[in-house]
Amino acid sequence: MTKVSLEKKLSSARHALASVRLSSRIGQHKNSSDVSKARKVVARILTEMNS
């Protein structure tokens, strides 16, 4: 993948992570495992960017 597309995916993934964290903090989100899944997606993208 190109660096530009990875940066776009990273931005989107970080936004999704923030959204999941916020909704879980205020009690709207029931599935707590979604936070760790979102964190792993961000980590995978960062790993791909650094390789």
How would you characterize this protein structure?
The protein is mainly α. It has one domain (3-50). Helix content is 80%, strand content 0%. The chain is built from two helices and no strands. The chain has helices spanning 3-25, 33-50. The longest helix is centred in the N-terminal third of the chain and has 23 residues, at 3-25. It is elongated, with a radius of gyration of 12 Å. 2% of the residues are buried. The model has no long low-confidence stretch (mean pLDDT 92).
Distance between the termini: 11 Å
The parts where pLDDT drops under 50 for at least 5 residues are none
When the domains are counted, the total is 1
Proportion of beta-strand residues: under 5%
Overall helicity? over 70%
Categorize the overall geometry: elongated
Q: Number of helix segments?
A: 2
Number of strands: 0
Largest sheet: none
Work out the radius of gyration. Answer: 12 Å
Helix vs. strand class: mainly alpha
The topology string of helices and strands comes to HH
Mean pLDDT: 92
